[in-house]
What we know:
The chain has 294 residues and is α+β, with helices and mostly antiparallel strands. The protein is 23% helix and 23% strand. The protein has eight helices and 15 strands. The chain has a seven-stranded mixed sheet, covered by helices on one side. A three-stranded antiparallel sheet has the order 12-6-14. A three-stranded antiparallel sheet has the order 8-7-11. A hairpin with a 6-residue loop joins strand 1 and strand 2. It is globular. Fe (ii) ion binds at residues 111, 115, 117, 264.
Amino acid sequence: MALTIKPIQPTFAGEVSGVDLTRPLSPQDVVAIDEGMNRFAVLVFHGQTIDDEQQLAFTRSLGEIELAVGTSLRAPSEYRLPTTFADVSNLDQNHQVFARDDRRRLFAIGNRLWHSDSSFKVIPAKYSLLHARAIPSKGGNTEFAYMPAAYEALDAETKAEVEELICEHSQIFSRQQLGFTDFTDEERVRFKPVLQRLVRVHPGTGRKSLYLSSHAGSIVGWPVPEARFFLRDLTEHATQREFVYSHRWRVGDLVMWDNRQTMHRARPFPAHEPRDMRRTTLKGDGPTVAQAAA
Ligand SMILES: [Fe+2]
């Protein structure tokens, strides 16, 4: 059966059928998925009962994996998964749900703010692939905002204003918005800001989009409160319902998104229930603006 993609909504997000992710992809499947990602930005694969090795093999067939090292408050001895995975579960290394006041959990609540994965890295992520192993009884949707449409809907004056702007991104900025400021000196160094353009041109489609993320906390050359307000205003614009697809998870779903043309956020769910989501990530091609390597 050939791989097919049918639109979930008219503007973006597609549902893929005719592919079994437990098996190697054919070269034609790889091309179809890459073209599908350019066109849809979010692809949903239902009913994929894959293990870690199969998720890694599928991810590697599409590009180079971005490692998750030092990006959370888990110490290396507390990792539940290998560093080829970003552990976006609420589980500790013994597969127990974090206590409500555990700072690793509170830091991870930052994923409920609109963001683009790894925008706090000099080379930000290309695709993210999130697989649902265990889901809560309610809540926990992931929502996606389609940034080329958000860009195109700006008025001409705002397009001109954002064109050359450079933002500073750090996980410290996103957590500040939630009142989480409890960082050690080592974490403050590790999470030091990086630069990202506010307008990106997608290499696969040639379309411009807003490169927003809650990690963005300042605009180079702007007073901070004015920058924060401007970024908040753009985020409100970009996350209007007409630009958003909300994914309601089923166990076995794999959802893949293009971080270069979407933002996403997780929605709340009951704190005591396990939510085991495993993310693999493809590395981006390069920085969006020249700067010293991290
Ligand atoms: Fe994320």
